[in-house]
């Protein structure tokens, strides 16, 4: 052992509490107030080992029982870097656990609000995808009877290329209703937790999750408006008023006392106007009634459904490039940023949802059929003609053939790898009985189909 009890030298041997695994400590990956995380070599594989500082392990007396329950229950979803087994080292005054190691492609969520040039600028559909994955993760966690207690930027990572997520720091997870070991993280806590009226629970997780979604979509906190902008020193009393005793939503339709400040919140207003009415409705409920009524908070499946529909409704303004969301009327609408009335791209309608057919868009299984299987497989890709970008087609990238009906022509079979031109009135029948009736609608500049 090292003379520093908080540090494990590389090469230190360890054994899982069950005795089924033995491994060796690798390089230090990071450290914090609870402990340190190391790479770990186990049976030829790479894992991560979280080792607790002795002082923290002695203070958090519920830590070991929580971890034991987590290991016994298993990960609620593959996106959780879940404790696999507890670990002991002979002679060490503490303990730890092993978990899957986070892939290098994943970065911290805080990069979404970092100052330029470090700030991560994700497209609107990728932001919605990140939120959809987070909603699914916490739906699975809560359905397993657990609450997370401390949703914040530090414990969720995202892949900027795929918009997938991974949830770490799962040692805070506990059975819902059990005594909590932590209140949460500043600006993510529910108002009743800020006021110290209750401890974290599934109900407070729902609030923290909504704050995370607002940050992802707007790079801003939902309760930071005119009132926050007018505070010279954000001390403890000011924070208690803003987030505990007198919270007001930035876009509260009934109370404008904390509304947007012109010149300060312009970018947030543009984005608010551009997202779907359904998503605005969920945010409004989460941060109006949901501030004082935990039972009124938005549940995971509601977020997941709305974000899933928004993902395929995003298109770029042809004048300024700003991302807008096409509503279900499929009519042209002014750009939220430049206010130009431009035509949206062709759209595919199926099962009451809208899929904008912008070039390079990938369409997944869950975009086409109402399914509880959220492990998407790619089905189609929107492609532009190599010599004429105004001509676009839909390429079959699935493993099954489609049936395509182009107005004025006989129906044809579209095999995997083949492309059909997108025209008004095209009807597609995909595999497994999913039928797209009158699937494509193209608008002219006046908005007529």
Describe the 3D structure.
The chain is of the alpha+beta class and 449 residues long. The protein has helices at 54-59, 63-73, 124-143, 191-194, 202-218, 226-229, 236-245, 266-274, 277-286, 289-292, 300-311, 365-368; strands at 13-16, 22-31, 35-42, 45-52, 85-88, 96-100, 107-108, 146-147, 156-158, 165-167, 174-175, 314-316, 323-325, 333-334, 341-342, 347-350, 353-356, 362-364, 378-384, 392-396, 402-405, 412-414, 419-421, 427-429, 435-436, 440-441. The strands form eight sheets. Strands 1-2-3-4-6-5 form a six-stranded antiparallel barrel. A four-stranded antiparallel beta sheet has the order 18-19-20-23. A four-stranded antiparallel beta sheet has the order 22-21-24-25, with no helix packed on it. Helix 3 (124-143) packs antiparallel against helix 11. It is globular and about 80 Å long. The termini are far apart.
Task: Sum this structure up briefly.
The protein is an alpha+beta fold. The protein is built from twelve helices and 26 strands. It has helices at residues 54-59, 63-73, 124-143, 191-194, 202-218, 226-229, 236-245, 266-274, 277-286, 289-292, 300-311, 365-368, and strands at 13-16, 22-31, 35-42, 45-52, 85-88, 96-100, 107-108, 146-147, 156-158, 165-167, 174-175, 314-316, 323-325, 333-334, 341-342, 347-350, 353-356, 362-364, 378-384, 392-396, 402-405, 412-414, 419-421, 427-429, 435-436, 440-441.
